[in-house]
Design brief:
five-stranded parallel β-sheet; Rossmann fold; four-stranded parallel β-sheet; globular; single chain
Length: about 300
């Protein structure tokens, strides 16, 4: 059996294009499982997985939990809001206490960039990064690229524009790494105040005009404005942002080609996407959610074999 080149999934930057293809091929098999009447396999029945979330999450957490249960793993959920973290316990102490209960794998979300990398140097369990601050969100990028592959048959050669709050988005960075490793052309589009200064060093095109970006691309991956991460005002108002960067169905219909619309969720309807765009035939947003479970099953299964 082919194996991943890594023991942990900390970021797309750390894995190879061969790793990504292996994850996709494994996810294809699990997607077949998810479409059967009995959606469960005994692959991880001897494995205990802890979901350790220091930040709020709905989709990612539910998706991981469902993936773990579909693989028959034992699952424990940890949320920092009701834990000893509030009493001053350190990250390492918290995780070591969880590991003392004989946990094999940790799925972790943390507000500090690099937190999963720090843990991987100190503990034996496999770690999956479910988002670390504004750094990376590797499983989201994998399910996004998997969804593009499902739609077009291949990611190579496709033109993908990532639109919106690039500066505060861990999804954008992971997507750029994944798409480039798979041979796609990548553009970013948004207000100049929401584009990082280093963005051109990543080898992506930069476009400030949304209509030109949509005319260029095959796929538009639209990001949420992350107001909770913004320490200052980066644009005058949400209304003005929508005026210049909001996408509606009329804009999509005016293009001389069909493009695919994606969003990692949650959508701020009426801000970055109108409802008629989000619910249109262009959108594969719900496919992304479905593919998220298959991709996360594949990652957990492949990492468990590195135990």
């Amino acid at each position: 059996m082919q194996e991943l080149s890594v023991r942990h999934l900390l970021g797309i930057k750390d894995i190879t294009s061969q790793d990504i293809q292996l994850i996709f091929e494994t996810a294809d098999n699990f997607k077949d499982v998810l479409n059967r009447p009995i959606k469960k396999v005994p692959s991880l029945r001897d494995i205990t997985i802890a979901n350790v979330f220091f930040e709020n999450s709905t989709r990612t957490r539910l998706s991981f939990e469902l993936a773990e249960k579909r693989l028959s793993a034992d699952v424990i959920n940890f949320s920092s809001s009701g834990s000893s973290v509030k009493k001053g316990e350190t990250l390492l102490d918290t995780v070591n206490n969880i590991l003392a209960m004989k946990v094999d794998m940790i799925v972790m979300r943390h507000s500090s960039p690099g937190a999963p990398h720090f843990l991987s140097r100190h503990i034996q369990a496999n770690i999956v990064n479910a988002g670390d601050g504004t750094h990376e969100h590797p499983t989201q990028a994998l399910l996004d690229s998997f969804s593009i592959r499902e739609k077009f048959g291949d990611v190579a050669g496709k033109k993908v524009v990532i639109i919106g709050d690039i500066l505060h988005s861990r999804v954008a960075l992971s997507n750029i790494f994944a798409l480039q490793k798979l041979g796609a052309e990548v553009m970013v589009c948004g207000p100049i105040t929401l584009l990082p200064k280093y963005i051109k060093e990543l080898g992506v095109k930069v476009e400030l005009d949304i209509r030109r970006a949509l005319a260029w691309c095959d796929v538009a991956n639209v990001l949420r404005i992350q107001l909770e991460r913004q320490q200052m005002k980066y644009f005058p108002s949400l209304r003005e942002y929508t005026l210049y960067y909001g996408i509606n169905k009329k804009m999509l219909d005016s293009l001389d080609k069909e493009i695919v619309l994606m969003h990692p969720g949650p959508i701020n309807r009426g801000v970055e996407l109108s409802s008629d765009a989000a619910d249109s035939h262009h959108s594969i947003i719900l496919n992304q959610v479905e593919n998220g479970v298959a991709i996360r099953m594949a990652i957990l299964y492949l990492l468990a074999s590195k135990q």
